[in-house]
């Protein structure tokens, strides 16, 4: 099979866009009510956790050049490695379903209230599935354009919001000590950790040695910008109001005014929706490619088609069964499972590779 | 025996280069006793036509005869001599109607391949310019010329173009569009991946950039490869204008492209799903104008768009003298009457008219046609999901454009993948003095 290649710049934007869009839709409602104005520390710790995982995956990637996490798991742990790969792929699927559910829920409540949820999960799956079937080169090229749009719109939004920012809303810092900020770090860390898909993308990079530098820069920029969004929303609305909102970032953009246009929240939302398309497309591609490597099929494309019904239906089923109103899932189980797999699998594989190296 | 087809040969050339020299030999001995050798000697030293050769098969001879060449048979000779006496009438060189310029050369390609090649060669007088000729079409035997500068064009690209043209299996080629469709990458794509132009200066510029041009006998449209989206939004005139003006016009063209694609869908999507985004005073004016209009926004927009497309098609097909009258009747009389009768609102007419004007800023006819079709798709998506629908449409379009290539070059280059030098050249018209400085 011909292996498609992406440049470092494209990899940078894939990671940046993934971090930005996942954080936009998922983190605010978890983080702001619990950590309030100290959330910058949680975001920094989340980014640090992801950098740790990135270091391990980078070393593994260099040790097993041209192999994805699914392939070198098998090389390191033998048949048990296949189980590890299966867990990782299952986790990716879980992330996709959870993220599509959060995304559809937000769009349904704020953008198109009369549209059924399945329309959102269906269109998202169609767009990301099509991109995934075209391959990582296509996703990489598109991420360049969309990443640039996210950056430009962020700069415009931040500049135009300066007059309505009230810095006193960001004080006092560490009112309840460091505990909430340290505890809250699991939310951004669990979502940032999705970038474990670096393990699937590294073999596609033109210069794998530059992966770590590029990945760390993308994570830091993504975390910085999203911390900016979160702090801006608190500074504009105040902690109390921001904590009440389903998505404070969306409400913050509603308050902002751009020249004569007053309600630009739809545009901001759409910019991040486009970013989500890239994130899901990358995840979708990684899952399909991983399945083809795990089950040794010739092409990954049949997996793209086979998985699509699950991504369309499962997020909608989750809502109908009141899954979304089950607080322990997003507040506890998702971060714990995510961190165990993202950090745990990477660490175990790294340790396993060290032992394997010694045996040789 | 001599054989030619009247109307295909230039009688003066025939007389001067073939008949007179042969008649003058009547009293002289033949150059050789062996007929085949004699025929070759006649071609070499007696016949003064620009080209003369001996072919061995009847098929080759007939193909030449059909092209306006004269055949010379000699009793006992194994081959047949073919003599270039072609004299097809061709249209005079005029300004290219599909791409007029305010400043720049006025000559355009004609239907004669030789004239077209000479128009390009006149601009690049270098021995590096290569013209490789092929014959395409099992019935039409159309001559096709592949032009490139051999030390600038990538050899693998030239080879690929030759291979693709060589593979063309068709009865006849009556226009370069036939070749375009048969050699383009992603043939199912709506987007043109082969550039076409009627201007020799454009082709000269293309060759200087290291790209490859294809000229087809009988067509005034030259083809060029590779061709990206950015190439289709560039014109030759950009290079003839002052650089700040050319840069400004180029940006206007990018805006025009987006307006052409998105303006009607944004109008439909915003009014149907997100009226809160429109400033209150503007919204109030639009709603007042729409009062009493019996159609919903989608129907109104589609109706106006279709009317405009019909008018455009009618004005192209009508004789020129009536064409302008049709436009005036369509635009002013029907439009104004429809608004006064309360059938259509004036904002819808403004949107459709602005879109129409924007569509004329796209220099490529093929790209403009593609955008016209996609615009309808965008309007339908906007009517279903509002601005979210437009986002879906744009993303799907983005996936398609990111995945297609033209002769190995990604279609969205130099934007994605990002190539800094080319990107700057596409976004700005770099002044010549800056380019010279870089070269030094």
**Contiguous runs where pLDDT drops below 50 for at least 5 residues of chain B:** none
Q: Compute the separation of the termini of chain A in Å.
A: 30 Å
Number of helices of chain B: 17
Number of domains of chain B: 3
Domain unit count of chain A = 1
pLDDT < 50 runs, ≥5 residues of chain A: none
Average pLDDT score of chain B: 89
Order of helices and strands of chain A: HHHHHHHHHHHHHHH
Description:
The complex is a heterodimer of chains A (360) and B (440). With 360 residues, chain A is an all-alpha fold. Chain A contains 15 helices and no strands. Chain A has a single domain, classed as Up-down Bundle (Amino acid/polyamine transporter I). In chain A, 52% of the residues are buried. Chain B has 440 residues and is an alpha+beta fold. Chain B has helices spanning 11-24, 35-46, 58-66, 113-121, 155-166, 176-183, 200-208, 229-232, 243-273, 280-290, 297-317, 320-340, 346-359, 365-385, 387-403, 420-427, 432-439, and strands at residues 2-3, 52-55, 70-72, 80-83, 129-136, 142-149, 195-197, 212-216, 222-225, 405-406, 409-410. Chain B is elongated. At the A-B interface, helix 5, helix 6 and helix 13 of A face helix 15 of B.
Which helices and strands appear, and what pairs or packs with what?
The complex is a heterodimer of chains A (360) and B (440).
Chain A: H1 8-35, H2 39-63, H3 69-77, H4 79-110, H5 117-134, H6 136-161, H7 179-184, H8 186-192, H9 198-201, H10 211-237, H11 239-244, H12 248-255, H13 265-294, H14 301-320, H15 327-359
Helix pairs in contact in A: 1-6, 1-8, 1-10, 1-13, 2-8, 2-10, 2-15, 3-4, 4-5, 4-13, 4-14, 4-15, 5-13, 5-14, 6-13, 8-15, 10-12, 12-13, 13-14
Chain B: E1 2-3, H1 11-24, H2 35-46, E2 52-55, H3 58-66, E3 70-72, E4 80-83, H4 113-121, E5 129-136, E6 142-149, H5 155-166, H6 176-183, E7 195-197, H7 200-208, E8 212-216, E9 222-225, H8 229-232, H9 243-273, H10 280-290, H11 297-317, H12 320-340, H13 346-359, H14 365-385, H15 387-403, E10 405-406, E11 409-410, H16 420-427, H17 432-439
Antiparallel strand pairs in B: 1-3, 2-4, 3-4, 5-6, 6-8, 7-9, 8-9, 10-11
Helix pairs in contact in B: 4-7, 9-13, 9-14, 11-12, 11-13, 11-14, 14-15
